[in-house]
Amino acid sequence: MHRWKSGFFTVTRFLTIAIISIVCFSPLVLANPGDTVSSISAPFKCPQGLTFDGKYLWVSDRSSDQIYQVDPKNGSIHDSISTPGYVPRGLAWDGKWLWCVDGEEELIYAIDPKNRVVERTIYCPVSNPTGLTWDGQHLWLAANRSDELHKISSEDGTTIVSIPAPTGNSWGLTYDGTHLWVSDRYRDMIYMVWPDDGTVINSFNTPGPHSCGLAWAGSHLWNVDYQTDRVYELQMDDGTPFVRSREKSEEMEYVHQTRNFGPDTLLTLDVYLAIPENLSNQDLLKPVTFVPEPTDILTDKWGQKVAHFHFENLAPAEFATARMYASAKLYQTRYFVFPDKLGTLADIPADIRKKYLVDDAKFSIEDDIIKNAVKQAVGAETNPYWIGRKLFNYVIDKLEYELAGGWNVAPAVLARGNGSCSEYSFVYIALCRAAGLPARYAGSITVRGDDASYDDVYHRWVEIYLPGYGWLPVDPSGGDSRRPADQANSFGFLDNRFLITTVGGGGSEYLEWSYNSNERWTSRGKCKVVVEAFGEWSPLESDSE
Question: How far out from the chain centre does Cα 447 lie?
Answer without folding.
Answer: 19
